[in-house]
Write a structure and sequence with these properties.
heterodimer, A: alpha/beta, Dimethylsulfoxide Reductase, domain 2, Rossmann fold, Barwin-like endoglucanases, six-stranded mixed beta barrel, five-stranded parallel sheet, 21 strands, B: 365 residues, alpha+beta, Ubiquitin-like (UB roll), Alpha-Beta Plaits, 4 domains, three-stranded antiparallel sheet, 16 strands, 25% helix
Chain lengths: 541, 365
């Protein structure tokens, strides 16, 4: 997020939520937004094909067709330009590429956008006017925007919209992706990506590579590595021979589960470090028991770049160990022999005694974390990165006065249709996601008594009109088939989904898991799979 | 604008529009309250904060009465104290005398006030309610209306913070009672199970069902931490007793969330102690006894080993594969569930130890 949750909730005149089921997936922030709408009259635009809970609070709800986000955003920008509602001063002072955007938007007139998105033209005008007259407005999204083959384009287009309205670098504005996992931000920040070292220093940048080579005392590769969506198929192609997996459950959470299982089976050696015998565990050659959040001390970074302490409250069960100890133990053993040699460097060792020491190493090598230490956090300091040095107070809002890259660049993006749309054989559109009472692959929440009591099986949302056509009555069991697999689940007949669309989750394993159906069509840049759209057949069982 | 008033013969300056209660608390003067909470609107319902205001016709509720220039307030007048004592006697006359086995014993605002004002349980009482002590089978919130003091904090917390409006009062006078929706089960009254109502309950009327009989509220060690679920990063206190998490409570000091948590954060912690937890390292038999993977079930069976053996075997296999097929034949998946420090080490492991940039995690999934 460029902004913080509190400034958005406090200062935004309007919220534009697109592709985020905020009250179910980020419930506490969702409640903050509801508060702002009901108590201080902030306006709310929700763009979502489903009538998600927060739509109840929406000033305007746009139920655009799945996969038409760019059409919608371009259409809104076109109206803003036609009406002269853009922030001319902001565009002139702080951006570049505006002309090119204007040229592209000529192809997105309201009637064409209305036809493509299914959103009436009057509603498009109302939305554009609301955004133009309610500034600053904050844009929020989650996987509904990114999990498309045009995920990156979708995000860039939302940035275009916010620059056009001058909503950047101000409290109550910004572009704000809501991160789905407690530390997905931190995993990205600290080098858990194939193209960057900690702090997004590129592996292809000679200077950055030299810095880490010298710190770690080892020659480092200059090629960009593989993403998870490339490593997995690599097992079948003989490219990936071994996997070291920490606290991930690809069988549950990756697209096309049957294919993933085949990949893991083909892999020569799978080392899995986990807290539960997950669905992936049956493919492991070695299973190491790690510690969960309550059993170790360290930090995580939330969706607004806030670094916070996690503290040990109880001992790990049995012989389970903190994950950092396991990784360090493994590293030391591998380095003790074999072909690859490591020289002495400032941070070449693995003799850590606590996570505070690891954070000190991070701070030394990562400019955005340079001023972060457990000591400051334990003193109660509230730090959001970049934290440039030991006295820097952190940065609650990014791009104030100036974009990180200098001028903000408008990148015109064109609408591209999804990879697999419904056809005669597979006439329904399937979208996937999570529900309030469960979380991701469900390894934790399916083992929480109360959560399971309220929500104990996968429910597939089916529109009432479709339910009538399908003859769903009695037990309401449905079989859903895609080109990749088949699941069976109970239907939740509800007008949350429009006719022709079904929505399923991936919280329950086996033949209830929606990822048996999903397609591994990837965004060419981010390699994110298009979980939000694939074609399926729905039948009553 | 500021106004100057006198509280208990002390000159106090307070911003215009503040209440007597706010002015007094800012000056370090205690006024007892029950229905008031600084996060919620004021309703002046419980009458415990009554104070004497000179020239006023009657006692005034400090939580709702704004200060004015020259106001003279006595918080400990005989009249105010007697009224508070009377209010507490009334509350106790319709409250079960079961502190001995109450979950919140020692952590109860009613108990504290009875202690402060020296009010015993009445020997003989007036009319009492006899509610079903656990009428709602909700898996998270246990309701006991017999203990409810009708302060309405749960109602306001649900309406003003969670903005879900599940709770309200039904009926009037002695018949007044707390109800969810139209006196229906909480879940059918659209409750999102966030448990905020429990967090604001001053007594034991609303309590975490998962924590019943696990440990008394004042007998736990609290460890402040960050929630393991979504990316909002709520802070919360793990309540630990005898080496186990028995409850999660919220803290007003949480930077992002204040007292709010969601159902997963507040009630989704028992996976920590689940019997399925992995407790010992395991390796497939072929790795110990030599030979190939996939030769047969007996060879592929998982066996428990010690840490040294598990790490030695893993290191040997990873080293062999790296040295035979090159560093890019190994992929490392780090975890969006793990700590920053652990993610940094996984990145260092892939790049320094293996020599590959094949590292990723489920950011996209």
């Amino acid at each position: 997020m460029t902004n913080s949750m509190d400034d958005i909730a406090r200062d935004a005149a309007a919220f534009f939520i697109i592709g985020s089921n905020t009250t179910e997936q980020h419930p506490v922030f969702g409640a903050m937004l509801r508060r702002a709408v009901s108590q201080r009259g902030a306006k709310l635009v929700v763009a979502d094909p489903r009538t998600i809970d927060i739509a109840e609070f929406a000033t305007l709800h746009l139920r655009h067709k799945p996969g038409t986000d760019i059409l919608l955003i371009n259409g809104l920008m076109r109206i803003i330009l036609d009406k002269g509602w853009e922030d001319k001063a902001f565009i002139a002072e702080r951006t570049e590429g505006f002309e090119e955007l204007g040229t592209l938007l000529k192809q997105y007139p309201p009637d064409k956008v209305a036809a493509g998105t299914g959103v009436p033209a009057e509603l498009l005008y109302e939305t554009a006017e609301l955004l133009a007259t309610s500034r600053p407005a904050a844009v929020m999204w989650a996987m509904g925007i990114t999990q498309h083959i045009v995920g990156v384009r979708n995000v860039m287009d939302l940035a275009n919209l916010q620059m056009l309205l001058g909503n950047m670098g101000v409290a109550g504005g910004g572009v704000n992706p809501l991160r789905g996992q407690n530390n997905v931000q931190g995993a990205c920040d600290l080098g858990g990506l194939p193209d960057v070292y900690p702090g997004y220093q590129k592996v292809t940048n000679e200077e950055a590579r030299k810095k880490f080579e010298s710190a770690w005392g080892a020659a480092l590769p200059g090629n960009i590595g593989s993403t998870v969506t490339e490593m997995m198929p690599g097992c079948l192609e003989g490219k990936t021979k071994a996997l070291y997996i920490l606290g991930e459950d690809p069988v549950m959470s990756d697209p096309d589960s049957n294919h993933i299982a085949a990949c893991l089976k083909a892999c020569e050696f799978v080392l899995l470090q986990e807290i539960f015998p997950s669905e992936t565990a049956s493919y492991a050659d070695v299973l190491l028991p790690g510690a969960c959040f309550a059993e170790k001390t360290g930090t995580t970074t939330n969706t607004e770049r806030r670094i916070q302490m996690v503290r040990k409250a109880v001992e790990p069960p049995g012989e389970a160990r903190e994950d950092w100890r396991i990784t360090a133990g493994l590293a030391g053993r591998i380095l003790a022999g074999g072909k690859r040699s490591v020289a002495a460097g400032k941070h070449s060792n693995w003799d850590y005694t606590d996570t505070a020491g690891i954070m000190a190493e991070i701070a030394d090598l990562t400019p955005s974390y340079a001023g972060v230490s457990h000591e400051r956090l334990e003193r109660g300091e509230r730090l959001q990165w970049p934290v440039k040095d030991a006295t820097h107070p952190g940065t609650p809002i990014l791009h104030v006065g100036r974009f990180t890259r200098g001028k903000g660049k408008f990148v015109p993006v064109e609408h591209v249709p999804p990879a697999e749309l419904p056809d005669d054989e597979y006439p329904f559109l399937l979208s996937t996601g999570r529900v309030l009472y469960h979380w991701h692959g469900g390894e934790m929440t399916r083992r929480a008594r109360g959560l399971l009591e309220v929500y104990n099986q996968s429910l597939v949302e089916v529109n009432p009109d479709d339910a009538v056509k399908l003859g769903l009555n009695g037990n309401k069991r449905v079989r859903i088939t895609s080109r990749r697999g088949r699941i069976e689940a109970t239907a939740w007949v509800t007008d949350r989904v429009p006719p022709g669309m079904v929505f399923a989750n991936f919280h329950f394993p086996g033949d209830q898991n929606a990822n048996v159906l999903t397609i591994a069509a990837l965004d060419p840049v981010s390699k994110i799979p298009e979980y939000k759209i694939c074609a399926v057949k729905v039948e009553a069982v | 604008m500021e106004v100057t008033l006198t509280i208990n013969d002390r000159k106090v300056v307070a911003p215009e529009g503040s209440t007597i209660l706010e002015a007094a608390r800012a000056a370090g003067i205690r006024i007892p309250t029950l229905c008031h909470h600084p996060d919620l609107s004021n309703v002046g319902a419980c009458r415990l904060c009554v104070v004497t205001v000179e020239k006023a016709r009657s006692l005034q509720t400090a939580c709702t009465t704004p200060v004015f220039e020259g106001m003279v307030v006595h918080t400990e007048s005989e009249d105010a104290r007697a009224t508070r004592r009377f209010v507490l006697e009334m509350l106790l006359s319709d409250h079960p005398n079961d502190c001995m086995k109450c979950e919140v014993n020692g952590n109860c605002e009613l108990q504290d006030l009875a202690y402060e004002y020296d009010v015993p349980f009445p020997e003989t009482g007036g009319k009492r309610h006899e509610y079903d002590s656990d009428p709602d089978a909700n898996p998270f919130v246990a309701v006991d209306r017999n203990k409810c003091v009708l302060c309405g904090r749960c109602i306001r917390a649900c309406a003003e913070i969670q903005v879900r409006n599940v709770w309200s009062f039904a009926s009037r006078g002695f018949q007044s009672k707390l109800v969810a929706g139209a006196d229906q089960p909480m879940l059918s009254a659209r409750c999102e199970s966030c448990g905020l109502c429990i967090a604001y309950c001053p007594v034991g009327a609303l309590y975490d069902r998962l924590s019943l009989k696990k440990a008394r509220a004042n007998k736990v060690r609290k460890v402040r931490t960050t929630c393991p679920y979504c990316g909002v990063g709520c802070n919360m206190d793990l309540n630990v007793s005898d080496g186990r998490i028995v409850r999660v409570t919220s803290t007003p000091e949480a930077p992002v969330n204040g007292m709010a948590l969601c159902v997963k954060g507040r009630f989704g912690y028992d996976f920590v102690h689940h019997a399925d937890r992995l407790k010992k390292p395991q390796v497939r038999r072929y790795l110990i006894e030599g030979g190939e993977k996939g030769r047969g079930e007996a060879w592929d069976e998982m066996v428990e080993v010690g840490w040294d053996a598990a790490l030695d075997i893993s290191a040997r296999r990873l080293r062999e594969i790296r040295d035979a097929h090159g560093p890019d034949s190994i992929g490392v998946l780090t975890s969006a569930k793990c700590l920053n420090e652990e993610n940094y080490l996984m990145n260092k492991f892939a790049r320094q130890v293996i020599g590959t940039n094949n590292i990723d995690h489920c950011a996209r999934l």
